[in-house]
């Protein structure tokens, strides 16, 4: 649908996505209406459709933007060095990237069930690409003889779940700095892969 003449899509579009993110994380996708999102932004409900076709598109765009940003940032942080160095870089990257993104992470994991089959396929492919990054590091460590991992796929999923757990408990005003947290998580990861 065409944007209303005189509207500011470069301002309103991001405000709509921010409101949807906040509301989906707080109440769950199924419990949030387009009317609530519009109210949060200060729009009439009908005006929302000038910026997005529907609520499904909003959910998908939030999840895809998160995954695209994650994959792009990861690619520049974990590409060089031996397997141990790459694993350490992956852990540090994952922790730093996910701190302060609790809403995005909650939606990325808990709202998959609400995606249409086509959108689910797209997001799952992006998630697999991220898992494959860690999986390749683990496989390299096995080849180099520095990791002791009985099943790289299971270990990949377990490590990502452990690392992503940071969003449930870390608070910037707590007693641990981001560097402290990365060090603790690196030590747990190192032991998990037998380094």
From TrEMBL:
GO molecular function, one term: DNA-binding transcription factor activity
A family per Pfam: TetR_C_24
Protein name: Fatty acid metabolism regulator protein
Coiled coil location: none
Keywords recorded for this protein, A-Z: DNA-binding, Transcription, Transcription regulation
DNA-binding region extent: 33-52
Residue ranges occupied by any HTH tetR-type domain in the UniProt entry: 10-70
